[in-house]
Specification:
Layout lengths: L6 H4 L8 E4 L3 E4 L9 E6 L11 H22 L3 E5 L9 E7 L22 H22 L1
Antiparallel strand pairs: 1-2, 2-3, 3-5, 4-5
Helix pairs in contact: 2-3
Amino acid sequence: MNHTGCLMCAMEDEDESSVVFRDELWAAEVVPGLAVPGWFVLRTRRHAERITALGEDELLTLARRARDLVAAVTAVTGAPATYLLVFGENYPHFHVLVAARGEDVPADRRSGDILKLLPGGVVPAEALRLVPAVREAYHRALVERL
């Protein structure tokens, strides 16, 4: 599939081992190059730049997907804080970085400074090892809400 250089669009071709969920509008995955354990990207399945380009269905479902993903990531990692970060400068395809912040993260790497964990915090094998448990927790949260 041609993704014209968009990393978030290229995620459509990624192996299922990195996928927490994919539905018709949203996907949550570990992103190559950002594979810090406990970090996931919630992204639109179609290429939409910035939140202002989201359709009504995407807008109406964003909060639920983010809430359930944060709950799953927090449950699995035991993190005292799980951040939602949206920038859109480096990768203009709309996405949200969901980043679990463990107790071991120093004070000078908390809040927005958590991005300073890159590139040293990238440990793909450990990040991917969390995916099945986060996937299960995410789906369990969906069933419990029905």
